Amino acid sequence: MNPSSQLRRYPTRRAVLGAAVAGAALPVLGGCVTGGNDDANEAAAGTKTADNPLGVPDKTPLEVVIFKGGYGDEYAVNAESLYQQRHRGATVDHKGIQKVGEALQPRFVADTPPDVVDNTGAGRLDLATLVGAGKLSDLADLLDAPSLDDPAKKVRDTLLPGVVDDGTFDDKVQTLNFTYTVWGLWYSKPLFDKNGWTFPTTWDAMLALCDQIKKSGVAPWTYQGKYPEYLNDPLLAMAAKAGGPDLVKAVDNLEPNAWKQPGLVDAATAIAELAGKGYILSGSEALSHTEAQAAWSQSQVAIIPCGSWLEAEQKGITPAGFDMVMAPAPALSGSDKLPQTALQAASSESFIVPAKAKNPRGGLEFLRILFSTTAAKRFAELNSTMPSVAGALEGLTLSSGLGSVKTAVDAAGPNTFTYRFRTWYAPLAKAVDDATGELATRRITPAQWSDRVQKAADAVATDTAVKKYQR
Amino acid sequence: MSHDRHGRYRFLAGAILPALALYAVFVLSPYAQAFYLSLTDWTGVSGQVNFVGLDNFTRLVGDPLFLAALRNNGLMLLVVPVVTIALGLLLAVLVTFGGRRGSAIRGASTYQTAYFFPQLLSLPIIALLWQFVYHPNDGLLNGLLRGIGLGGLARTWLGDPHLALWAVMAVLVWSSVGFYMVLFAAAMAAIPTEIIEAAVLDGAGKLATLWRIVLPLLRDTVQVAFVYLGVLALDGFAVVQVMTVGPGGPDNATEVIGLGLYRNAFTFSKFGYAAAMGVALFFLTLTLAVLAMRAGRRDKVELA
């Protein structure tokens, strides 16, 4: 064999690659990521009895996936053992994980999801998308089932105000949120007492107090600037109190010029005033939530906006005797449509039962147990966080922060509100966050703020590819 | 003879096919799927997929976020490779020829190790460290400026739309310059000493030797560095995602294509649209690589 023939007989690298690519691409394309099937599955169901109102089948395994974040997953393990006590012979496959979305996305596509999922955390699956794709079970059976503690009471009637609404998409309840979060402004009570400061209930009083605080050498406000959505909460809360439920509805329903309503412009003006008068700790716009909250915990700053998870989040670094408390955002004017005690409240820690679960009845039953007073109390004890089950905090010794949250919730009574646009239209939420970040650094005016956000809302409203919701 | 040939083919196939199959499944097929998904409205969780033609690409052109990302990646593409290569060459020259009479500097390997160090850290960790450095109140950078009496220059580096992207680029340069210094130093060490000596005998000064002898001989290495750094500049996702306000801010000042892709896929559940971004990025990177390789394809210098 001479060298030249040898060269010719060997296939060139290019030819081999080309042939292999052509051969490999075809079958692979066929079995690609979107190749799910939509066949209806026959889920197992048992007989319904007084003891087993949801008809959980005997000896059927249950797979539970829990977001193991700030709240850990011990509370879920506790509920799972209660489940096993009620359903002898049922094994429970428990998974406590962080990236719920990454782990479960392929399983939802392939229609082999777990039986119940805590779809929470930064890596969660977009709820609106799951709903739109019809991947979730209707939870009506669960809500109408007798509650574990009092069979005369339906599960529906044991939940705090707003919880059922929060889980409703297209007139169907498709998720049930386990924790109850309220938003407000946080301060250290001893710090305020020592300086003779009283937490204000009106915006004018807030500005007067900020002046006083600044003179004492402490920065009045900071916010978690890296994520401007934290500053949206007081802004949108003040707007909601000023304009009442109609303002909130107009925003969520993407009505024309909803973001130009006086309440919203006034609230944006209030935040801009705070920045303009130098009442915000300098550099706040670049601080992460941990950095801003640490500055606050070290009493470099008097006031920070946050949700009711703050106390649990700051556990490790709160100095002794700091005694944080939460107050609702002040009223913008005397003519506000909601009382100043009204609270922005929303339930979170979203539990779902996938439509294609193997044991959906078991999934519902797990939630019936989790949302019982016993299991909810255990959660509150473990995490000093308010569950969305009414009365779960009764009889417990509460820490300073959680106690103030309970007081605020009791004072608000039925006057709670929540914006839904964040869950319904994620791109609009981003536009609001960006605009508020710019507002707080005075790079845009309140009028420009509402123009920008209105433009983003209009873009969502006219985008035919986006599924619309109404409330 | 013919038997022999079949044996060869069998051996060739046995050697190539397993690797090729892995390559096809884990590299080619995701690419093919991305191209296909970019023509659909896939949400990421549904098994149902609708073909939407080039709709996603027409949306891209009108998407202000994507255009901001293009602008930012474009600026990074202009700045990061040039600065990194210039600094890398400078450091490599100093280490390799900075000693007496053009020899290697004393402790050259120590310098190389020290400069190479950032390469050992993963990008998210680098981004996190630099977030501390840029901290407006307790950060190293502002602390240093205030310490030497230049407190007036202290800035909210990551919170200012005019500075944030430059702060990101500084991190990218810092994290890669050590690697390219080592790469260039190795290429310089490979230049036969006779060539340098001949130049010196001919009366070339240090600068002339560097400019006319050493650098032209490094052409191929620099060219490869350009391609790699160009790809790096078109990415920037990890640093932006971990370090910047928003992330991608303030007000989209540090938005990059990779971040938009990630957000559209995993936050907005628009996997089809995200795939279209990926395809656009793919062609950008490909064009860059081809242009860079073409630009350098002339008079090759053969050593020895």
Description:
The complex is a heterodimer of chains A (471) and B (304). By secondary structure, chain A is an alpha/beta fold. Chain A has 2 domains: 62-181 and 346-407, Periplasmic binding protein-like II (D-Maltodextrin-Binding Protein, domain 2, 3-Layer(aba) Sandwich), CATH 3.40.190.10; 182-343 and 419-462, Periplasmic binding protein-like II (D-Maltodextrin-Binding Protein, domain 2). Chain A is built from 19 helices and 11 strands. Chain A has helices at residues 3-9, 13-30, 74-86, 100-109, 127-132, 140-144, 163-166, 189-195, 203-215, 229-252, 262-276, 289-297, 310-313, 360-370, 373-383, 400-412, 421-424, 426-440, 446-462, and strands spanning 62-67, 92-97, 116-118, 168-169, 172-173, 176-188, 219-221, 301-307, 324-327, 343-352, 416-417. In chain A, the strands form 2 sheets. In chain A, strands 1, 2, 3, 6, 7, 8, 9, 10 and 11 form a 9-stranded mixed beta sheet that branches. Chain A is globular. With 304 residues, chain B is mainly α. Chain B has a single domain (54-295), classed as MetI-like fold (Orthogonal Bundle). Helix content of chain B is 70%, strand content 0%. Chain B has 13 helices and no strands. In chain B, helix 10 packs antiparallel against helix 13 (271-295). The longest helix of chain B has 36 residues, at 2-37. The radius of gyration of chain B is 24 Å and the shape is flat. Classes of the chains: A alpha/beta (471), B mainly alpha (304). At the A-B interface, helix 2, helix 4, helix 5 and helix 18 of A face helix 1 of B.
Structural class of the helix and strand makeup of chain A? alpha/beta
Largest sheet properties of chain B = none
Order of helices and strands of chain B: HHHHHHHHHHHHH
For the secondary structure, the number of strands of chain A is: 11
Quote the average pLDDT of chain B.
88
- Assign an overall shape of chain A: globular
Low-confidence stretches of chain B: none
Reported CATH architecture of the largest domain in chain A? 3-Layer(aba) Sandwich
Computed over alpha carbons, the radius of gyration of chain B is: 24 Å
User: What is the CATH topology descriptor of the largest domain in chain A?
Assistant: D-Maltodextrin-Binding Protein, domain 2
Distance between the termini of chain B: 40 Å
Range of strand content of chain B? under 5%
CATH class of the largest domain in chain A: Alpha Beta
